[in-house]
Amino acid sequence: MTILSAAPIWGNIGKFFLVFLGWSAYVLAFGFVMFAVTRLYESLRNEQLIRNSMVFGLIVLCLLVLLESRLIMGPLTAGALADILAMPFQGWPPAVGHVLVIGLILVVTIFTFRITFAHVLMVYHFIERIIGDVPRDAEEDEEEPGVAPSRFLGQRPQFSRYSAASRAALDDFEDIDAGDEQLELPSTPSRRQLPSRSGKPAAAAARVARQPEPLVDEEIYYDDGFNSYDDYSDKTIAIEPEEYAYDEEESYYFDDEDPLNDINLHKQQISMVPRGVHDPQPLDITDHTGATRGARQQPLSFDDPTVIDDDIVLKSSPGNEPLLLDSNPRAAASKPGRQIRQATPDVPNSPVQVQRQATAAVSKKVADAVANANTPHIKSSWQLPKLDVLQAPDSIKQQIFSEDTAALAKLIQDTLRSFRVEAEVREEDISIGPTIIRFGIRPTGRPQMVVDEKSGKMVPVRDASGQIVYETRTRVSRIMALQNDLALVMEAKTIRMEAPVPGRPYVGVEIPNKNSRLVMLREVLESKEFQAAKVKSKLSIGLGKDVAGLVRVGDLAKMPHLLIAGATGAGKSVMINAIIASILMQSTPDDVRLLMVDPKMVELNMYNGIPHLLSPVVVEVEKVVSLLKNAIAEMERRYRLFSQLGVRNLEGYRKLRSQKLTQGDTTLNNLPAIVIIIDELADLMMAAPEEVEGMICRLAQLARATGIHLVVATQRPSVDVITGLIKANIPTRISFMVSSAVDSRTIIDMGGAERLLGRGDMLYLPADAGRPERIQGAFLSDDEAQRLAEFWRQQIVQHALALGADPRAVQEQPRSSPAGSCASSTAMNLN
Ligand SMILES: Nc1ncnc2c1ncn2[C@@H]1O[C@H](COP(=O)(O)OP(=O)(O)OP(=O)(O)O)[C@@H](O)[C@H]1O
């Protein structure tokens, strides 16, 4: 303006501005210059520092101040514009005009600078601090900034709404924030106490207090693991004061709805604990007698006929089996070995009646079969297959942290920050699995800042362990709410989020791996994890590889039953084949026996004729009920045997048997574990729902101790197939991809399976785990399964010869046979 007024050409223009705007012409000119400089800076840094609303507010504020000066001092310096503005006030009492204009100034200031009550309190405390003389502690002078323990450590209980003291703490929350000592917070450096470069506490306090509550948006640079300046901009967080004011309030006062809020979690947990004193339940003598009937107290009814059902024949033979089931009586009738067939009246549906019926049917013949079964001193002539039977995986590409992955990690971080969610994705939190990549999002928050003595910059406070101390933390639920936004920016077909990943301090975001590859069963079985597992249990199964590419194995003996569900084509049959192959690769028929039910008729047919089968693969739904009844009868027979011997389970029985063997006592026979595999439960449940449900539950409840295990698969995860009873009794579950979250909840009691990718991508929920684990299932081709089955079928002849069977009769037996004739080969290995 001075130049304008002085220059001859522009003099008139300058005069006009001065006449029209008065003194405010200087202020406006200064404002325009500042505006231009700031805009230039913004374009250079590609950041926004000033808001349009703020510019507008400042102009209005300037005009109001001009008006007020006109009202106070008259038309001397205020200019023509002020005269125009003051016209409405002519004739009013001067006091009214002043009050009105000053009031307007206050209102516009509040809106322009977005001033909140928190700011007012902060200014109040700041002034109070300056007025009050705060001596610095000598000890604190020596203390390095940031190495003291976090003042937020152990703070939570102060805010618990259940303690009386906490109410006061909540009311005086701002006092705590300002470092007020009256609440007895841990003695850690508060802002006013932190040492400054100059060593003057008051000056340092003034500087620190000025910085965190800026009048415009500002950026706080803090060192959170990035070493170079190039990483600097990625680590920049734009902070809006009002955003934080809101968050603070919300996180402390309005989080009742949040299921992840630790107070709500705590409430949930304590609600599960039964309260009060309960009277002991009186013993029900009838129940007790029923439960113990058939055990030690009672003589066993071994004189009854052998037969249980007219479809399935219980067969004893001088081979190595205590019990053999054959679902094809005609084929079985033509085989050597004594078979007794007797029709029984209709078996009622109730499991209790089934039990009674079956108990009566276990006869002296069975006892004979046990006595004649494989004597332990005979060394097994079975050979286990070599791993060459299975296909080797393609040369595995080393999955490394690529530029693509780094770019995705940055994209996630930037997206979260654009939504004002402070979080970071570290390189070490990225897991690259065979089919998916998991990014770990660590919720961070607003760090507590101090002035660094050396550089004079604001740096975050660190606690004794070097961790950044946060003033406010990001809530996990805020990250979870951005699931769809993340899926959008990552252009992923489907993403799945897990919060938090069990045992890790981050939220997992799983996206499909573009370089996905098959996980072959052979690489799983070759792994040291499986080798270690199979030493412990003959029922170890290779499941696949997890999101970090680590091999995952399971133990069917511990599960003790497994439910597999998923949409059609999701990979259930391949999983069942992998389970069977895992067993066939490590266990001989002396260790494990199989019973298979395959209503689809094509999935398990290839295993017909292998010596592990107790019965040919059952494809007719009507025969399944008979098969399950026989399994229950076998279970009860084993229970009685255990009861007589005083052992609790199959493991105890095996220990006792090996003890007796060392003493030369060969009276105890080998009892193999039995795995019952049902490929489609829905078909059975449609045919005889109550009967099947009752028998599956009975087996599931009691069969574990006797070494009988169930593997049940279904593609219909509805409540009429996977009933509450079945779910309650089969605790270990695998869910492949399903079509809806409801289906997912039916299987694993929580959503997530609807976001799987199919083709072997599964969620595995072990019995003892609260959350499922994502695994890429091991793949076994039909050719491999065929080769494995053929390997075992070929051994039947050698084994029969080794047991002293007639070579001519053995040669005449077909080696591989379809369902109808497989009983011959199964029977053969017993002779
Ligand atoms: N672990 C796996 N790895 C790679 N691909 C797999 C895997 N499991 C299954 N697939 C692919 O998915 C296809 C379908 O698998 P599968 O036959 O096991 O499905 P399903 O769930 O049994 O279907 P349905 O219920 O209709 O029988 C397979 O042919 C195979 O190509």
In terms of topology, how is this protein built?
Layout: H1 2-6, H2 11-21, H3 24-45, H4 52-73, H5 79-86, H6 94-113, H7 117-131, H8 138-142, H9 164-171, H10 173-177, H11 201-210, E1 218-220, E2 237-239, H12 241-253, H13 262-272, H14 285-292, E3 313-316, E4 324-326, H15 329-333, E5 338-339, H16 351-361, H17 364-372, H18 403-418, E6 423-432, E7 436-443, E8 445-447, E9 449-451, E10 458-460, E11 470-473, H19 476-480, H20 483-490, E12 496-498, E13 507-512, H21 521-526, H22 528-536, E14 540-546, E15 551-555, E16 562-565, H23 572-586, E17 592-597, H24 621-645, H25 650-662, E18 673-678, H26 681-687, H27 689-702, E19 708-714, H28 724-729, E20 732-735, H29 741-748, E21 761-765, E22 773-777, H30 782-802, H31 807-812, H32 822-828
Parallel strand pairs: 16-19, 16-20, 17-18, 18-19
Antiparallel strand pairs: 1-2, 3-4, 3-5, 6-7, 7-13, 8-11, 9-10, 12-13, 14-15, 14-22, 20-21, 21-22
Helix pairs in contact: 2-5, 4-5, 4-6, 7-11, 16-24, 18-20, 23-30, 24-27, 26-27
